[in-house]
C-alpha cells in the first residue's frame, strides 16, 4: 500500500479485522495486556457489586480503555524498536523505557481514580 493513496487500501470493514487481529495477537503474546485486562475485569466486577453510578461507570470505562490503549501502543513501539535493531542501542532503550513509563504513569493515575470511585461507592469519601 502506498501512503496517501487508495491503491490496495483495505476496506473499512477489513480495517476492523486487522485491528481485532492485532488485539488478539497482543493478548496471546503479551503478559502485561493480560494483566491489564484482568484488572479491568476486576474493576467492572467491583462496579457491579457496588452498583456505582453512571458517571463512575464512565470514569472506570475511560480508565480501563486508556490503560489498555497505552499498553497496546507501548507493545507496538517495542516491536518497532526491536525490528529496527537487534543490538543494544542506548536510543532504542530510551524509547522503550519512555514508552513503558507512559503506561506506568497512566496506570497509577487510573488506580487513583479507581480508589476515589470505589471509596465513594463504599461511602468512605
Automatic annotation (TrEMBL):
The keyword Phosphoprotein does not apply. CDD domains: UDPK_IM_like. One of its GO terms (molecular function) is kinase activity. It comes from the Bacteria. Its EC number is 2.7.1.-. Pfam families: DAGK_prokar. It is an enzyme of class 2 (transferase). It is a multi-pass membrane protein. Keywords: ATP-binding, Cell membrane, Kinase, Lipid biosynthesis, Lipid metabolism, Membrane, Nucleotide-binding, Phospholipid biosynthesis, Phospholipid metabolism, Transferase, Transmembrane, Transmembrane helix. The chain crosses the membrane at residues 35-52, 58-77, 98-122. It is found in: Cell membrane. InterPro entries: DAGK, DAGK_sf, UDPK. Belongs to the bacterial diacylglycerol kinase family. This is Diacylglycerol kinase family protein.
Amino acid at each position: 500500500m502506498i501512503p496517501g493513496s487508495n491503491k490496495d487500501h483495505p476496506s473499512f470493514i477489513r480495517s476492523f479485522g486487522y485491528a481485532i487481529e492485532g488485539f488478539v495477537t497482543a493478548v496471546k503474546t503479551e503478559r502485561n495486556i493480560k494483566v491489564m485486562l484482568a484488572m479491568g475485569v476486576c474493576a467492572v466486577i467491583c462496579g457491579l457489586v457496588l452498583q456505582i453510578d453512571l458517571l463512575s461507570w464512565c470514569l472506570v470505562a475511560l480508565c480501563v480503555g486508556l490503560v489498555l490503549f497505552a499498553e497496546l501502543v507501548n507493545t507496538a513501539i517495542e516491536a518497532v524498536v526491536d525490528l529496527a535493531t537487534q543490538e543494544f542501542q542506548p536510543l532504542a532503550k530510551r524509547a522503550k523505557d519512555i514508552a513503558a513509563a507512559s503506561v506506568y504513569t497512566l496506570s497509577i493515575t487510573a488506580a487513583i481514580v479507581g480508589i476515589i470511585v470505589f471509596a465513594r461507592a463504599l461511602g468512605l469519601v
